[in-house]
Model the fold of this input.
Amino acid sequence: MIRILFFVLLVLCLALGFAWLADRPGELSLIWQGQLIEMSLLRAASLLISVFAAVLIAVWLLRTIWSSPHTVTRYFRARKRDRGYQALSTGLIAAGAGDANLARKMTAHTRSLISSDQEPLIHLLEAQTSLIEGKYDDARKKFELMADDPETRELGLRGLYLEAKRLGANEAARQYAERAAEKAPHLPWATLATLDHRSQARQWDEAIRLLDQSRAANVLERKEADRKKAVLLTARAMEQLEADPKSARDDARAALKLDDSLVPAALVAAKALFREDNLRKGASILEKMWKLDPHPEIASLYVRARGGDSALDRLKRAKRLETLRGNNAVSLATVAEAALEARELALARTKAEAAARIDPRESIFLLLADIEEADTGDEGRIRYWMSQALRSPRDPAWTADGVTSPSWLPVSPVTGRLDAFEWKAPPARLPAATEEGYLNPDAAIRSLPPVATVPRPATEPETESAVDAAPPAERVEAEPEKAITVPDPNETVAPPAGDPNRKEPVPAVASPAKGKDSEEAPDPFFGRPPDDPGVREPASTEQNTGNFRLF
Done:
């Protein structure tokens, strides 16, 4: 474009010059070697410009003839280079598609057309071809050459890192990742790999420092970086909990500010506050997390937050959790467990059956078996609940990469991945149909066998040991089999009064529900001295001598 403008300006200037000379005619006389040459001024200017143009044309012709060998050589070289790049592109596509034969063919063709010094991607094509063909040693050699070249250093380190991970050489993979992160801190894979390796080595301070650097460089998204930093702070707080509860509390609270849904951070923060005798703040953290995620570990820590409390105090705290998150299986199961410890068996049975309707799983049916053992001691009914537990889905657990852990861990023991554990049901087979069909919680509760009783003489006191000692042939059913009426979990249900067929009187306890004048909301339990430790049991001889087992 600039050349065209320059040419137009030149033509305009020449036209203006000739027009100016045509308006001002004149004669030009020249005496050269005794001869007089006369011509007009316009003609002389035209001859001068023509001579100048001829000289330029002659110079151009001479330069073209002189440089013609180089021009021809450069033309064929460019054509050869274009063919080489075409072969290189075809080879990379073939390597990505897994076509080893075409990739090897294009590699040889590219090497014959382009030198590897001119194009480093030839090393990449050769390395990828070697990987497809299973020649891993040749591929590693190519990646090492690429790692030594400044232009392909990051690409070579990436290939070496992947090969080290494939072979299980974690130490070599760590070195390659740290080298790449040092040379190119903007690479996400290098940052994440180095972060995982430092987390596996429990170097929490170095891992947090690296994460802050990557966050400042915008390598990771803000949400992902906050989550990973919260996990790292929680892991460091767990290690400091025994030796330095104050530092553990600060790290756990900082983790909750970054991610308020991280249950392990709330547990560590509450435990640290409980160690400092700050029960109110610890309970507040657990209650806030409970409203977001009713987790069984939160319920267990909340109910047993203060040592020396009686079973009735723990039951009140369990009821407090139910008021915060009602109509929830975990809340109902927590109240049922606390009621079982406090020997409120009617309440425990009601809450456990309601929890089974909402979420029928293994632990709830096992809890019903424990309640049955403490209430009636009927082996048939106990085995019935245990069989229901075997058929029911497994309880959620901390799961990562196909393995489960009894407690949360910041790093997966299988892959070493940070923040891999999730609270979910472990992998299990699909439920198979039985003779009675698939598991139905209502049908399981309603189809309970009746309580087995044994007639006794009037002079013999009715004790649980006499029932157990009676032979099976002498046991008879006191009443015909009938379905057990199960209330709706959303309604307030008053358990029945003492059943004469049962071995101990059952006090009538109403289920806590909102909006009922007859049932007061449980009082706050923190900030007042604990009651007498132990379980407050009635002075009944039958209850004191009965068998009782905690769930």
User: Anything to note?
Assistant: The chain has a mean pLDDT of 79. The CA atoms of residues 342 and 449 lie 26 Å apart. The first helix runs from residue 2 to 23. The chain has 22 helices and seven strands.
